[in-house]
Amino acid sequence: MATTLHYLGPKGSFTHQAALEASRLIDDAGECVAEPNVTAIFDAVGRREGWGVIAWENNVEGYVVPNLDALIDADDVVGFARIGIDISFDALVKPNHTKLTTICAHPHGLAQCTGFIADRDLAVRPTASNAAACRDITDDQVALAPSVCADIYGLDVLARSVQDFSGGRTEFLVLAPRDDARRQLGAIRAQGAVQANGERDFESIVAFILLNTGPGVLANLLDVLRYAGLNMTSFISRPIKGNDGTYSFIATFDAAPWQPQFKAALSQVLAHGDWVKTLAVYPRRERPSPPVSAWMLPQGGVHLDDTTTSWNDDPETDRELLWK
Amino acid sequence: MATTLHYLGPKGSFTHQAALEASRLIDDAGECVAEPNVTAIFDAVGRREGWGVIAWENNVEGYVVPNLDALIDADDVVGFARIGIDISFDALVKPNHTKLTTICAHPHGLAQCTGFIADRDLAVRPTASNAAACRDITDDQVALAPSVCADIYGLDVLARSVQDFSGGRTEFLVLAPRDDARRQLGAIRAQGAVQANGERDFESIVAFILLNTGPGVLANLLDVLRYAGLNMTSFISRPIKGNDGTYSFIATFDAAPWQPQFKAALSQVLAHGDWVKTLAVYPRRERPSPPVSAWMLPQGGVHLDDTTTSWNDDPETDRELLWK
């Protein structure tokens, strides 16, 4: 039987679009069901009523931290797939609309489409969500919403991709109880002899809490990961929920925890007395990995170049580092 | 002459509240001026038309990543003060209001006060901002907004702190051109012989970009900081703007870059060929720093305890780490 996918509603949200994509890509994934909040999604997965889809990271806004905190704290829930969705707004209207006077969307949607709104000289009306703008649309209104809303709410597309900034992208995780996730990952491992060693490439997100505190504990942790030859693509620290001043570390690796070197590194961290939890394992995504060249650097700052003689008495270095 | 503080408007936003607090705490800080977006704030500071106030980190949502990216990329702008504001909503009404039927706020404000709204049985009306709800309030409406809005918009307080969750807090940075910031920090250093060594304690936020890539480069960076005995309280990686797959690292330290050990560590990083920029230096905040105890740990996960014999064949470890 196909597995229900629980996502953050209302219908027609970007998370809904991610859930539909997950339903298309993942064997055994079925109907998508809107939930009122993220807690309800974790609860549904915890009660084994299906899988969940949550927003994880956006290339402009960074991590969706409340969802990250919830996954760290969830019992028996793990990510097993990662889905990317381009953040793009379509301008939608009723099929027999009259003269258009007003444009409606969540304030975030309105803020992301200022050029389109100014060009059309429309009055602006904020709504509780982009989907609510579609649901409650009147004959003289334009709604800004994800493209999936045209079908859902029976609307016509006035214009596609009307956002000011193209290139916005949000990544979502598909969550399951741990035994379900293991079965899904096992099936992928069984299919895919893409690598020389017979393993398909995976990525993992792992949370660490260092129970032995003091200077250098983080560097010690990273030493273990370095000696294992693991490629880390993202790393953040987060206060432990409800305990200001205590931290967890969340890292994304180009490896699966069952690969011998990774497994040995995790064993070493455990033997050191620290807390470890795998938050997600999913097939590796294609990612660019260009070298960093000087022309890519932000404005200001300091780095070694042909003209550097000594930083110590250099006014520019002093200005950028405030080190005097 | 007092220095103008540029903040993200409209008047009565939480950033406005932070700007008023900064104006009260910092010598030479004067009038607060609302700007339409964060770019306008950086531009005003860059043109030396005053200082800026930007949201930096929230204890629930994490870093305000677009502001972090903007500060990394800004030329000659640095933070020199950090201001914390409790995220609290007051229910505001017109002085001679009629029967109250409707409650207005930005969708985020509405979502954070669901208990109050349900208790009073009010119809919900989203607005573009909490301040807009106050500005456009009618006789039968309640506006949810920061407490500073009562004065600004001439409204009465129906109820204080009506948010569902108490304990939300956002930290703001006060930004200045680098020479201005140095003067301000110099004045604080001159006043404060609070420490045995005559230095007042400071914190710093520093951005690093590793120009030599390859496995272990991050661990190498952290080694240098560890050997300098620096206490790091926050650490994240961020893609370099416009260059997917390239990363900067942003770390917060309990030290000032002019302190000899920190300065030596930064010199070593520079000598290694990497890029460094100080994003902020400000007086140290009081922070709890409790040891991490087992009862503070999230649900699930694995750590060493009295019952651990071997992780290798332990089904629970296997379940939490997905390492088989």
Automatic annotation (TrEMBL), chains A, B:
It holds the Pfam family PDT. The keyword Lyase applies. Residues 4-177 form the Prephenate dehydratase domain. Coiled coil: none annotated. Pathway: Amino-acid biosynthesis; L-phenylalanine biosynthesis; phenylpyruvate from prephenate: step 1/1. InterPro entries: ACT-like_dom_sf (IPR045865), ACT_dom (IPR002912), Chor_mutase/pphenate_deHydtase (IPR008242), Preph_deHydtase (IPR001086). Residues 206-284 form the ACT domain. It catalyses: prephenate + H(+) = 3-phenylpyruvate + CO2 + H2O. This is Prephenate dehydratase. It comes from Bifidobacterium saimiriisciurei.
